[in-house]
Amino acid sequence: MNALLADVALIDIEGTVGSIAFVRDTLFPYAKERLDGYVASHAHEPEMRALLDDAAREAGVSAGDLPAVLRALHAWSDEDRKVTALKAIQGRIWEEGFTSSGIRGHLYDDAVQALQRFHANGVLLYIYSSGSVPAQKLLFGHSSAGDLLRLFSGFFDTTIGGKRDAASYARIASETGVRPGRIVFFADNAFELHAARDAGMQTVQLARPQDGTEPDPSHRSVTSFDGLEVLPA
Prior knowledge:
This protein has 233 residues and is α/β, with parallel strands linked by helices. The protein is 47% helix and 15% strand.
């Protein structure tokens, strides 16, 4: 078994511990179908109003033009844009799906086993995903393997910065109190891995064939977590 020495495992979700298809074919359509009605019924709430104002600024439209804001949200959803306001609204809609409609977050078996191993070894587990922190907690709290929230020490989303920005990883290291060289970042996206490496982190790419991920030769690449171990440095 190959062992990495690190005090923190920072982990992406989509294409890394869970399938891209689950997000694309289940979660995105669920939120898109309910977006207009959900926004309309919650637009009077201060938190939703703030999200819509943020979306209007990002889209360059008037905050009072709700149809224009909704068009932008739908366009970003179709393009899978990592817009923080969209991700937050999607997360609120998904909450209803996880808690009321029986949706269960897909996780690969090898990933669940690895998360449990790393945690048992004393390694701190953190998630960094473009999905909002509430959406991340929903997925792991209502996963195909049950409630796994106890395994994690914290969650990060794009409110800390973009996933292709090295400064985001430096901020995460600061938040965890662990220097970057003692953190290993697991992700499928090579550009995100580049950014983490530029910040001084160790990197491992999950190049799962079922998700169509091509290995990047500049990073250590594996097809699953099988055979990987993380031990405190």
